[in-house]
Structure formats: structure tokens, C-alpha cells
Specification:
It contains 12 helices and 10 strands. It is α/β, with parallel strands linked by helices. Strands 5-2-1-6-7 form a 5-stranded parallel β-sheet, sandwiched between helices. Strands 3, 4, 8, 9 and 10 form a 5-stranded mixed β-sheet that branches. Helix 6 runs antiparallel to helix 8, helix 6 packs parallel to helix 10 and helix 11 packs antiparallel against helix 12. It is globular, with a radius of gyration of 19 Å.
């Protein structure tokens, strides 16, 4: 099975690198600068689950992409989606499956419009990883997961085939029979974490230690959960309990990648992660005052950054 990984940053570099390490047929679609970095230093992964340096990983640039691939693993940020779609479009053939690992749901509409819904699976991942100053992939915590599946539910033959390729190479990679529920539950958690830590500019533990902090965290979780429930995907069961636990762990150093991006002066996915939830809340007449405050903060940051 031929896999095209779009990008070799923290997420694409990690999951694609683990597959390449296990001998899978993986090619990275990268820009010229990243291609040069990988050619000279290799793809370097620093991880609690084991370090590895993959010399001369297979790469291709958009202007030279012509082969069709069985799977496209898409790990870009939402604000790069339009350019990413243009770059990997030549790789999509009649039987290609696209697995997007973006947050939220808006990207599904864009991918469906360009390629048709039959090509687009549901997908999500959970990993704390970044690129360091040496452009090495650094996994910050041992926890990791990668899920994928048919958006209509169930297990198809193509999902089983992808699972055979992914699961034996990536710890925590699994096919899901209910991937849309999984995606919604992740969105609820991520939006709650991103909105709170970005707005307060600090960790979950510090928010909890502040007067009213726990009520704020649980309140924003309730707002996001109400939106998901209106969409038919109410969070519940083990995932929701773990999520609530993560947001109420005293002393937790946890922050969202969105908060870390703000600290670094980088673009953020304000509209994709938070704004779209507010649009859905308005349509359902669900009050979300905490989400609105966080969104205003993020849009003000974007305005300041653009200036």
C-alpha cells in the first residue's frame, strides 16, 4: 500500500516516520526547504517511545507529483488546507482514500467539494509533538493515537486494509466503526482546552488554582458538549470521563497547541476550531458566552499579529 504523507512536520513527520521505520511504502510531500532538511539531516524523531533517524526519507515536491497513491495522510493546519489540496490533488486516483487529521469539521466540506465524499474518510489523532530548533520531530509525551474510518460507520474492506498497514507500524493506530463520534468528542475536548488555555494564557493547573477556574473549565466543556449533542454526537462514556478528568487535574501542566502557537506568534485555527462551533451554536440557539469570549480574544490576537 502506497502512502503519501502531506507534510513532514510534527504530526506528519511522526506518524509517517514510524510507518517508514517499519518498512512501509511512504513518501512525504514537502516544500523545497523541508526537502533539503530531510536530505541533509534525515527525518529525526525524538520520543519517549524510542528515538530514530531515518536517512534520506522519500520525498516529492508538488510540481513533480504525478503518481497515484492508495492513501493520502493529511496533517496540515486548517489555514494551509487550500494550498495543501492543490499540492496533493495529482496523487488522488479512483481508489485513493484521504485521511485528514485536522481538527473540527469544516475541512470535510472542502475535501468533499474537491474530491468527492467517497474519497474522504474520517480521521483524528492525539499526540503532543513539535519541531525543535534543529527541525527534529520531538514527541513531548508517550501518549499517542491515530484513528480513521468510514464516516457512515462500520468497517469497510479499504479501512481494514489501511488498518493492516498502519496498526502494525504505529502504536495506537486503529480503525474506528464510529469515527464521526470520535471526531466530535475530540473536537469538544480540544476546543475546551484551546479556548481556556489560550484565553487565560496559562496551563490547566494554573486555571484550576485561580478563583472560579474550575467552574470556567467545566462551563466551557458544557458549552461545547451541548453543541455536539445538538449535532447528534453527545460526548459520553469513557472518553468524556477522561476528558473531564484531564480538565480537572490539579497542577496539570497541560496547554493546547493553540496556546503554544500564540506564545510563538504563529497563526491559529480560531475559525476552524472555535468559530465554527459558535456558528453551530447560533443555528441551534445554544448560548455559549465563554466560547464567544475566547473567540473574541483569538480574533484580536489575529488582528494584532497581522498588523
Amino acid at each position: 500500500m502506497r502512502v503519501l504523507v502531506v507534510g513532514a512536520g510534527a504530526i506528519g513527520g511522526y506518524f509517517g516516520g514510524r510507518m517508514l521505520q517499519a518498512g512501509r511504502d511512504v513518501t512525504f510531500l514537502v516544500r523545497p526547504r523541508r526537502a533539503s532538511e530531510l536530505a541533509s539531516a534525515g527525518l529525526v524523531i525524538k520520543s519517549p517511545n524510542g528515538d530514530v533517524t531515518l536517512n534520506n526519507p522519500p520525498t516529492v515536491q508538488a510540481d513533480r507529483l504525478s503518481d497515484k497513491f492508495d492513501v493520502v495522510l493529511l496533517s496540515c493546519k486548517a489555514f494551509d488546507l487550500e494550498d495543501a489540496i492543490k499540492s496533493f490533488a495529482p496523487a488522488v486516483g479512483d481508489k485513493t482514500a484521504i485521511i485528514p487529521l485536522l481538527n473540527g469539521m469544516l475541512h470535510l466540506d472542502a475535501l468533499d467539494k474537491t474530491f468527492g465524499a467517497r474519497h474522504v474518510l474520517g480521521g483524528l489523532c492525539a499526540i503532543a509533538a513539535t519541531l525543535n530548533e534543529k527541525r527534529e520531530v520531538v514527541q513531548l509525551q508517550p501518549m499517542q493515537s491515530l484513528g480513521f474510518g468510514e464516516r457512515a460507520g462500520g468497517l469497510s474492506d479499504r479501512v481494514r486494509a489501511i488498518a493492516e498497514t498502519f496498526s502494525s507500524a504505529i502504536n495506537g493506530a486503529n480503525a474506528s466503526e464510529h469515527v464521526m463520534q470520535d471526531m466530535w468528542e475530540k473536537w469538544v475536548f480540544l476546543a475546551s482546552l484551546a479556548a481556556s488555555t489560550s484565553l487565560m494564557r496559562t496551563s490547566v493547573g494554573n486555571i484550576l488554582a485561580a478563583p472560579g477556574g474550575k467552574d470556567f473549565l467545566l462551563g466551557i466543556l458544557d458549552e461545547c458538549s451541548a453543541i455536539a449533542a445538538d449535532a447528534g454526537h453527545a460526548p459520553g462514556g469513557p472518553f468524556f470521563q477522561r476528558t473531564r478528568g484531564l480538565l480537572t487535574t490539579e497542577g496539570s501542566p497541560m496547554t493546547a497547541s493553540m496556546f503554544r502557537d500564540i506564545k510563538a506568534g504563529l497563526p491559529v485555527e480560531a475559525d476552524h476550531v472555535i468559530g465554527d462551533l459558535i456558528v453551530r451554536a447560533d443555528a441551534a440557539k445554544i448560548p455559549v458566552p465563554k466560547l464567544r469570549t475566547a473567540y473574541t480574544h483569538l480574533k484580536a490576537y489575529e488582528k494584532q499579529r497581522s498588523a
